[in-house]
User: Which sequence fits this backbone?
């Protein structure tokens, strides 16, 4: 027998294909209802096994179209679905003219048994010319089923969203508590090592003093790491409501916080005229501090120059932070925004690899995008957008 399998999932089609072939049938495959009708027009088909939810034309509609045509009115049709499984769906399947209704995944035996039964039914009543159901009635039932399905999916989505939000909050809380609690023993280690250094430096030999120095350095690095992990975990939890915010003031705050680094590096930080945006001011300061701070840190032989500019674009502001530093090879442009992703080792350029991941979260929370344009050795331009009237996030 020639059996037409209609399903938009290739793995489902393959599974059924193999099963039918093992039973000596010939299987044809269609991706959706439209493709199925095309195959029916040119091939001889003895029965159809069809999924319901498919793009272009779903299984109910396909069955209805088949039953409307004189040529296929008696073609055995089995609906095989994992989505439409309520008794209403079953009634609708029979209304549009399906012979059988199977819920996915059914055991192989059940599929073959259903196939045998519909074929026998056809043999017993070769001209099964059941009057085609009235079009408007079918359409009404059909749209009811679709609306119902949509509502069901929406409810499932809302439920999944809530669960995701809860686990996200729990995770953030966990990261916060873990990092917070790590600070106390670290402070103790730091204190004792410093005591060792100040009280026993004369007694200990060069090697011991070097080890103490390295321990102090590692403890300091860990302090910074914990501080940055805490900052990352607080992007959502420590957020404040969005408000009209002068970006010039944001820039000035960030520059003030970077005062020592600017002086140390002999840097020059400049900006265009900057607009007022709607956003979370402390987070925007953090964003600018990280971007300008990186521009200062990753400088080459020239003293660092960082310039902040802005352009209006449609319904968003498009900001750029340009530096004259060491640049970033294009293959790293995406990955540098991932947490703990660093292209340089601590000795040369200290850091934790968290700054840009915080920037990305802040920008995303404001409904914008962030990316970099750069080439190794030719400076970098970090671009980010902020929608002009960003509503408070849900
Ligand atoms: P950190 O600076 O602590 O390493 P970031 O997340 O801020 O972490 O940056 C990730 C990596 O991206 C850095 O290690 C660095 O290699 C690269 N990078 C970031 N900003 C710049 C820049 N302005 N110029 C060159 N490289 C940069």
Assistant:
């Amino acid at each position: 027998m020639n059996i037409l399998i209609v399903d938009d999932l290739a793995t489902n089609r393959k599974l059924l294909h193999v099963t039918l072939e093992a039973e000596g049938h010939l299987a044809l495959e269609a991706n959706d209802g439209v493709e199925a009708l095309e195959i029916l027009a040119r091939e001889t088909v003895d029965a159809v096994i069809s999924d319901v939810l498919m793009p272009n034309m779903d299984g109910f509609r396909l069955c209805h179209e088949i039953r409307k045509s004189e040529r296929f009115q008696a073609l055995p049709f089995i609906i095989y679905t994992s989505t439409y499984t309520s008794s209403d769906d079953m009634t609708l399947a029979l209304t549009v003219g399906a012979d059988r209704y199977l819920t996915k995944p059914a055991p192989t035996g059940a599929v073959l048994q259903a196939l045998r039964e519909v074929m026998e039914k056809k043999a017993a009543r070769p001209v099964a010319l059941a009057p085609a159901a009235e079009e408007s009635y079918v359409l009404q039932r059909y749209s009811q089923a679709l609306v119902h399905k949509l509502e069901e999916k929406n409810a499932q989505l809302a439920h999944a969203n809530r669960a995701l939000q809860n686990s996200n909050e729990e995770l953030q809380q966990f990261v916060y508590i873990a990092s917070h609690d790590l600070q106390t023993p670290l402070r103790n280690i730091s204190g004792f090592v410093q005591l060792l250094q100040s009280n026993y430096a004369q007694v200990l030999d060069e090697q011991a003093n070097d080890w103490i120095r390295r321990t102090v350095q590692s403890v300091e690095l860990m302090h910074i790491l914990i501080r940055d992990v805490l900052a990352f975990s607080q992007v959502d939890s420590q957020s404040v409501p969005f408000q009209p915010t002068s970006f010039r003031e944001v820039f000035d705050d960030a520059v003030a916080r970077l005062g020592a680094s600017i002086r140390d590096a002999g840097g020059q930080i400049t900006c265009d005229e900057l607009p007022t945006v709607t956003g979370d001011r402390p987070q925007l300061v953090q964003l600018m501090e990280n971007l300008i701070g990186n521009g200062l840190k990753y400088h080459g032989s020239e003293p660092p120059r960082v310039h902040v500019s802005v352009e209006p674009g449609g319904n968003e502001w498009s900001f750029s932070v340009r530096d004259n530093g060491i640049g970033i090879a294009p293959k790293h442009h995406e990955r540098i925004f991932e947490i703990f992703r660093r292209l340089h080792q601590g000795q040369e350029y200290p850091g934790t690899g968290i700054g840009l991941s915080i920037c990305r979260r802040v920008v995303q929370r404001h409904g914008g995008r962030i990316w970099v344009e750069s080439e190794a050795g030719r400076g970098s331009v970090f671009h980010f957008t902020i929608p002009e009237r960003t509503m408070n996030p849900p």
